[in-house]
Design a protein that fits this description.
The chain contains 9 helices and 2 strands, in the order ββααααααααα. It has about 190 residues and is mainly alpha-helical. The chain has 2 domains: about 100 residues, no CATH class; about 80 residues, no CATH class.
Length: about 190
């Protein structure tokens, strides 16, 4: 099992892959205070995005030659020195986690980032922040259940409202059971 996350220690279990977007944030937070440093920063960001594009291509069509070339290219990008001391330091952290960042070369089926997963919980977190918490354990379970159902319906391109109406009326022919739809969707992805 592969766990894809930012570099937070609590996720360092099983086989850990590092989210490329989280890893790159240390570089994106920098700002050059003169033209030379701004150019160096832009060059590094461009190299990283081009590297990301190559990783996406590798995922679609893995090949041993590409794998070796991408390994070498990551060494070049993350160890290259510039005129910008902070920019030299930021990639060192990424390079130390190279194996986790490039796990996709061994396991092309894993995603390169976990933004989709983070988006999945964002709505729930916003609602919790706005309304505080629920008053009871059954309330929390109900909130979590309906939030999960809503997100699942959205991912399957089903109207959540239509789903609820069909379940309330007992009309299972208009909207099939979600496990059945999930199974169909998964089979379509594999095919």
């Amino acid at each position: 099992m592969v766990i894809l996350s930012d570099d937070a220690g609590q996720f360092n279990v099983f086989l850990h892959a590092l989210c490329r977007i989280h890893a790159e944030r240390t570089i994106n937070r920098l700002s050059g205070f003169d033209d030379e440093r701004r150019r160096a920063l832009e060059k590094k960001q461009t190299e990283i995005w081009e590297f990301y594009s190559e990783l996406k291509q590798y995922k679609e069509s893995p090949h041993a030659d590409k794998k070796g070339r991408l390994n070498v290219r990551s060494d070049e990008i993350f160890t290259e020195k510039t005129c910008f001391a902070s920019l030299n330091k930021a990639p060192e952290h990424i390079y130390r986690n190279k194996d986790e960042l490039l796990l996709v070369l061994e396991r092309p089926e894993i995603p390169l980032h976990n933004n989709a997963s983070e988006r999945d919980i964002r709505e729930f977190v916003k609602k919790r922040k706005i309304s505080g918490s629920t008053r009871s354990s059954p309330g929390r379970r109900a909130r979590d259940t309906f939030a999960s159902l809503k997100k699942t319906c959205r991912k399957l391109a089903i109207s959540f409202w239509e789903y609820l109406k069909a379940r309330a009326k007992g009309c299972y022919d208009t909207v099939p059971y979600l496990p059945e739809l999930i199974h169909r969707h998964a089979c379509a992805l594999v095919a």
